[in-house]
Write a structure and sequence with these properties.
Strands 1, 2, 3, 4, 5, 6, 7 and 8 form an eight-stranded antiparallel β-sheet that branches. This protein is elongated. With about 140 residues, the chain is of the alpha+beta class. The protein is built from two helices and eight strands.
Length: about 140
């Protein structure tokens, strides 16, 4: 295994109490693999005429640049001009077709919803009231 040392950028929070809140990462990230003598240096938000989340940097091995890095930390990352990650192509939500993969506490298994989906409105209302009463008892017990 390797040990990778890293530094984190400055995290800037503005308007935390009033106005539109804003969070920006600024500065330089540095990742260093001492075993293989590889260093990645990425600068955040310092490039003129680019978005504030724009990143650019280099990956060095034995002090020589082997790759250029650019992109935006909210949108995409290119290594030597080749796009390796693009947020527009990502689907962060996985659809669980198979109910065997879903926890029993998933909202799709609520007894009132199951009754409602089955078309039994009266049973769905009874089951909804059972759940609400249970939630009220739980809230009082806290």
């Amino acid at each position: 295994g390797s040990l990778i040392k890293y530094s984190i950028p400055n995290e800037v929070f503005q308007n935390t109490f009033f106005g539109k809140m804003r969070h920006v990462s600024l500065g330089t990230l540095q990742y260093e693999d001492l075993k293989y003598n590889i260093v990645a240096k990425v600068t955040l938000g310092k490039t003129k005429k680019k978005p504030q989340d724009y990143i650019e940097g280099v990956i060095e091995r034995n002090g020589k640049v082997v790759c250029n890095v650019s992109g935006t930390y909210l949108g995409y990352v290119d290594f030597d001009g080749v796009r390796y990650w693009d947020a527009r192509e990502e689907n962060p939500y996985r659809d669980f077709e198979n109910n065997d993969e879903v926890l029993q506490s998933d909202a799709r298994f609520r007894i009132d919803l199951v009754s409602l989906q089955g078309g039994d409105m009266i049973e769905a209302q009874k089951n909804k009231e059972i759940l609400e009463n249970k939630q009220r008892r739980d809230a009082r017990a806290r």
